[in-house]
Design brief:
11 helices; 199 residues; mainly alpha; elongated; two-stranded antiparallel ribbon
Length: 199
């Protein structure tokens, strides 16, 4: 399949393989082009391994066999490109106010502070729609960033509290208190402290 396309087309296919879902604007951002929508429509029309995800022709995905083939080829031929591609995708999703794929891509780009910022800014929204496990997993994957990122430490404290892990909540509260040197999050820290003491 890859042998039958020219070099530019081949590169674009490899670059977009990092995406779980494809849309024209997202391709424009990741590949730094302006014809993503037209290119994707043409690709979907000519290739049965490009699968539509909606009735409007906005979102598509590669069949997993094609996606895995393309990703393996990208890793083999241009391993250094993946981080920049994931960074571009993560920032596009952040701009689109879609925090879960934004964080996923930023973590794959090893942009932990940017990912932590998005988790901190969107935790309330995610928790309100029942995505507690998602937030917890992001905190776990961010590892020791939670020790230096104030917003993430507060989120860690609240999530630990609501899931009944009070000792963990206390540790996170201590971290958040240490990091909040100018009192930006004093209200959140105080209310978390009160809830932990009540518990």
């Amino acid at each position: 399949f890859l042998d039958s396309v020219d070099a530019a087309e081949r590169q674009r296919l490899l670059d977009v393989s990092i995406l779980d879902r494809l849309s024209g604007p997202l391709i424009n951002e990741v590949c730094d082009v302006d014809d993503g929508t037209e290119w994707l429509a043409g690709l979907a029309a000519s290739n049965q391994l490009v699968i539509s995800l909606d009735r409007t022709g906005t979102w598509f995905r590669f069949h997993h066999l094609l996606r895995d083939l393309l990703r393996a080829e990208l890793d083999r031929t241009f391993p250094e490109r993946s981080a920049a591609l994931h960074a571009a995708a993560g920032r596009w999703y952040a701009q689109a106010d879609d925090p879960v794929p934004a964080v996923e891509h930023l973590l794959r780009a090893d942009l932990r502070i940017e990912a932590a910022d998005i988790v901190a800014d969107n935790a309330t929204k995610l928790l309100n729609i029942g995505r507690t496990y998602t937030v917890t997993r992001f905190i776990e994957r961010l590892g020791d960033t939670v020790e230096t990122h104030e917003g993430l430490a507060i989120v860690h404290g609240w999530v630990s509290f609501v899931t009944g892990r009070f000792a963990e909540a206390k540790r996170a509260l201590a971290t958040a208190t240490r990091l909040d040197t100018v009192g930006v999050d004093a209200g959140l820290i105080l209310s978390l402290s009160a809830m932990i003491h009540l518990a």
